[in-house]
């Protein structure tokens, strides 16, 4: 039943991007090499061999992009700082040119009355740190604290919200557990170490930020609801394992200072793995945050790998089960609901999952303010003969999710803001440029920006503080 979705005056409307996905200019301004430069230049790692070398050329189109952001009205803009622009080798003195670039961006936002929201880490680790072990090394968390202190000192007077890391699950498990993301390992033990060190890095960065800034500090998690494919006990257990793997391995230490017992048990044979945890770490990790940021796209229906034939017979779309890496180890596989609506990139659309997720977090974990810091759909957008990009499916997707978010608010959940992923079409990691998430279409060869219909729709939503 559609609700009358009117939002509070203080509700934060925003858009989001990330450095490697939009900036390009990978050799400009003293920037060092990041793991995504290396990974995307390794044959076979990204669709079509795409790289972020140029991406949206945001580095050279900052003013134009600032005007596009401002054109949405009273809003916030969440962007990430590329660590390798600030410390090209991941440690040592700050590179002033890198700081200047983000100062210009932050000042440009404020001049346009847009609230800057900074993510300190959105996956582009300096390659030099990866060469020393990357997120499997405890030292990376220490270095991250130093980097956070530099950025806080340089931009702290102007940033309104700080997100330490974006989706540490992807950092640890796609980067080290399945190999789909940089640096490309498929090693469960490495992923467990990375899991812990990203959380420790969050603690170190929070501590550094709090020494300098008053603005709220949090972390962005991609908590994904997991539903069993059937009421068979194996599928129910598979969904619970998947929830532990994707969600509780981060939520429990952050809010309760423990790793979930079932996951500790599941991963006990992967050494050194969670032996990376040292006395005192979990107390630090659970130090209070000011908000929790959640990125939501879809809900996963999970089956035990021993029951994939049954899932197929029940009408689910079933892919061949993984044979190595973290997914094989988990023994649970995502199956597709063919009857569900899908985005152009074939992601299942499940707005009610967002309501459920927000309610679950507030009931089980925290009464802190929640922000949905990413939500959006990749569609098969193109500029038509009229030069415009008509994207009704994206508008529908955003509207459904905003209704779902509003339903959570009506149920008493403390949701304070919503950020569309993404402002611009951009480099979608291993999928390269094959997926377009933007409110603004980017013609990559020319860098020409064309606001889509969804951009104008979102502007109306922001102006009305309600769904039209
Ligand atoms: O593009 C990504 C983003 O970098 C992190 N969250 C999910 C988005 C869509 O896949």
Secondary structure: number of strands: 13
Derived from helix and strand composition plus strand pairing, the structural class reads alpha/beta
Outline type:
globular
**CATH class designation:** Alpha Beta
Low-confidence stretches: none
Taken together, the total number of domains comes to: 1
Q: Element order, helices and strands?
A: EHHHEHHEHHEHHEEHHHEEHHEHEHEEEH
CATH topology call: TIM Barrel
Q: How helical, in percent, are the residues?
A: 40-55%
Ligand set: 5-hydroxymethyl-3,4-dihydroxypiperidine
The number of helical elements comes to 17
The appropriate CATH architecture is Alpha-Beta Barrel
Any idea what the radius of gyration is? 21 Å
Report the CATH superfamily.
Glycosidases
Amino-to-carboxy terminus distance: 16 Å
Sheet-strand content, in percent, reads 5-15%
Placed side by side, the strands forming the largest sheet appear as 1-2-3-4-5-7-10-11
Major sheet characteristics: 8 strands, parallel, barrel
Q: Overall pLDDT, averaged?
A: 98
How would you explain this protein's 3D organization?
By secondary structure, this protein is α/β, with parallel strands linked by helices. It has a single domain, classed as TIM Barrel (Alpha-Beta Barrel), CATH 3.20.20.80. The protein is built from 17 helices and 13 strands. The protein has helices at 19-22, 35-40, 62-70, 83-86, 96-111, 127-131, 138-155, 168-178, 188-212, 233-256, 261-266, 281-285, 308-313, 325-330, 351-365, 392-410, 453-464; strands at residues 12-16, 76-80, 115-121, 161-166, 217-221, 226-228, 291-295, 300-304, 332-335, 370-374, 415-421, 440-443, 448-451. The protein has an 8-stranded parallel β-barrel with strand order 1-2-3-4-5-7-10-11, surrounded by 5 helices. Strands 6-8-9 form a 3-stranded mixed sheet. A two-stranded antiparallel ribbon has the order 12-13. Strand 12 and strand 13 form a beta hairpin. The longest helix is centred in the middle third of the chain and has 25 residues, at 188-212. It is globular. The two termini are 16 Å apart. The mean pLDDT is 98. The protein binds 5-hydroxymethyl-3,4-dihydroxypiperidine. 5-hydroxymethyl-3,4-dihydroxypiperidine is lined by residues 18, 21, 167, 295, 374, 421, 428.
């Amino acid at each position: 039943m559609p609700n009358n979705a009117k939002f509070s005056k203080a509700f934060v409307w925003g858009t989001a991007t990330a450095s490697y996905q939009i900036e390009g200019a990978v050799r400009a301004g003293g920037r060092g090499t990041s793991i995504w430069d290396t990974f995307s230049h390794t044959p076979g790692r990204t669709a079509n061999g795409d790289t972020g070398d140029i991406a949206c050329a945001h580095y050279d189109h900052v003013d134009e992009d600032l005007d596009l952001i401002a054109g949405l009205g009273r809003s916030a803009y969440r962007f990430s700082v590329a660590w390798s622009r600030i410390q090209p080798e991941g440690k040592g003195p700050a590179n002033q040119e890198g700081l200047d670039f983000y100062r210009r961006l932050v000042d440009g936002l404020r001049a346009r009355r847009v609230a800057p929201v900074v993510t300190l880490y959105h996956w582009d680790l300096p390659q030099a740190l990866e060469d020393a072990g990357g997120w499997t090394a405890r030292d990376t968390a220490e270095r991250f604290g130093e980097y956070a202190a530099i950025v806080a000192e340089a931009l702290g007077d102007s940033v309104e919200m700080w997100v330490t890391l974006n989706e540490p699950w992807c950092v640890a498990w796609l980067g080290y557990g399945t190999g789909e993301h940089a640096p490309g390992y498929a090693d469960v033990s490495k992923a467990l170490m990375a899991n812990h060190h990203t959380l420790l890095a969050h603690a170190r960065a929070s501590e550094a930020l709090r020494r300098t800034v008053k603005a709220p500090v949090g972390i962005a998690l991609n908590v994904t609801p997991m539903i069993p494919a059937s009421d068979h006990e194996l599928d129910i257990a598979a969904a619970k394992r998947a929830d532990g793997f994707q969600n509780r391995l981060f939520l429990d230490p952050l809010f309760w200072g423990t790793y979930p017992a079932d996951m500790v048990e599941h991963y006990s044979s992967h050494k050194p793995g969670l032996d990376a945890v040292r006395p005192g770490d979990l107390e630090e990790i659970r130090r209070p945050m000011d908000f929790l940021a959640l990125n939501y796209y879809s809900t996963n229906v999970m089956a035990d790998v021993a029951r994939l034939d049954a899932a197929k017979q029940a009408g689910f779309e079933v892919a061949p089960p993984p044979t190595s890496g973290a997914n094989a180890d988990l023994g649970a596989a995502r199956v597709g609901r063919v009857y569900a609506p899908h985005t152009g990139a074939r992601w299942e659309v499940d707005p009610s999952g967002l309501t459920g997720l927000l309610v679950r977090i507030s009931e089980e974990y925290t009464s802190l303010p929640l922000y949905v810091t990413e939500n959006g759909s990749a569609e098969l957008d193109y500029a038509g003969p009229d030069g415009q990009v008509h994207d009704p499916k994206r508008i529908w997707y955003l509207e459904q999710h905003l209704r779902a978010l509003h339903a959570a608010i009506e149920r008493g959940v403390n949701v304070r803001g919503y950020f569309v992923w993404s402002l611009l079409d951009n480099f979608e990691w291993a999928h390269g440029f094959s997926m377009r998430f933007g409110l603004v279409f980017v013609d990559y060869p020319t860098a020409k920006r064309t606001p889509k219909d969804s951009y104008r729709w979102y502007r109306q939503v922001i102006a009305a503080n309600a769904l039209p």
